[in-house]
Amino acid sequence: MKKIISLAAAAIMLLAGTEAYAQFYFGGSAGFASTTVKVSEDVSLNGSTTFKILPEVGYQINDKMAVGAQIGYLNGPGALGGFDPSDLKGIAFAASDAAVSAVGNTEIMGVKLSAFRVAPYFRYTFYSNHLLEVFADAAIAYTVGNGKQYDKSEEVWDNRGTISVIEAGIKPGFKVKVSKNFHLVGRLGSFGYQNLKVKDTSYSASRFGLDVDGSNILFGFVYAM
User: What are the residue boundaries of the structural domains of the chain, listed by start?
Assistant: First the structure.
C-alpha cells in the first residue's frame, strides 16, 4: 500500500511540474535564396529565387521536449525540398511538359513553381542556458505545389503539373532568448529522406542525406504564452 501511495504521489508531482512549465507558443520563420541553373549552351535559368513564409505553432511540454507544426507557403525551386534543380534538369526537360515545372522560376523559360507545406515535428533540446538553446526537430513534411509555364502566343500562364514532396528527417536549430516570452529561432538544414513525384507522369526522384544550403536555412521568432 505504501508503494502505491508513493508512486501516486510521485506521478502527481511529475504532472504538476510539467503543467507548471508547459506553455503554448506561436511565431514563424522565413527563408530566401537565389539559384542559377545552366540547362545548355543556349538556355539558362537565371535569377531563379526561392522564398518561404512558414507560420508556426507549438506546445512546450517541459524544458526538454516540445511538439509543433509549420504550415506555410513556398515559391521557387526551394519548394522542392533538398532536391537541387541542377540535378533534376536533365530528367525534367527530357520528360513530359509537367516535369518541366520541377525546375523553378525563370524569365527565359517562363516557368513558375509555388507550393503549400505542412510539417509537424517533435523537438528535443540538447543544451540550454539563460540565453541560448540548441535543439533538433524530428519532422515529417508534405509539400504540394503547381508548376506553371508562360504561353507567349496566348499571353497566359498554363498549369503544367502538380509536384509533391514527402520528407522525414532531423532538423537542427537554435533559439536565442531575447526575453522571457520572445525568442529568435534558426533552423540550419536537415538530415533525412525525401521523395518527389510529378502527378500523371512516371517522373519520380528520391534522396537521403545531409542538406545544408541557402534554400534550407530559416530564421524567425516565437512568442511563448
Answer: 23-224
Within 10 angstroms of residue 70's Cβ, the number of other Cβ atoms is: 24
pLDDT in tens, 27-73: 988 877 776 655 555 544 445 677 888 999 999 999 899 999 999 98
In one letter, which amino acid is 130?
Answer: H
Phi and psi of 195, rounded to 5°? -135, 130
Q: Which of 224, 177, 178, 206 lies closest to 59 in space, CA to CA?
A: 224
- What's the confidence (pLDDT) of residue 92? 45
Please name which of 213, 174, 166 lies closest in space to residue 192, comparing C-alpha atoms: 166
| Per-residue exposure over 15-54, b if at least 16 CB sit within 10 Å of its own CB, e if not | eeeeeeeeeebebbbebebebebebeeeeebeebbbebeb
Q: Domain 23-224, what fold? A: Porin (2.40.160)
Contact (Cβ atoms closer than 8 angstroms) between residue 84 and residue 95: no
Of 194, 191, 133, give the one whose Cα is nearest residue 163.
194
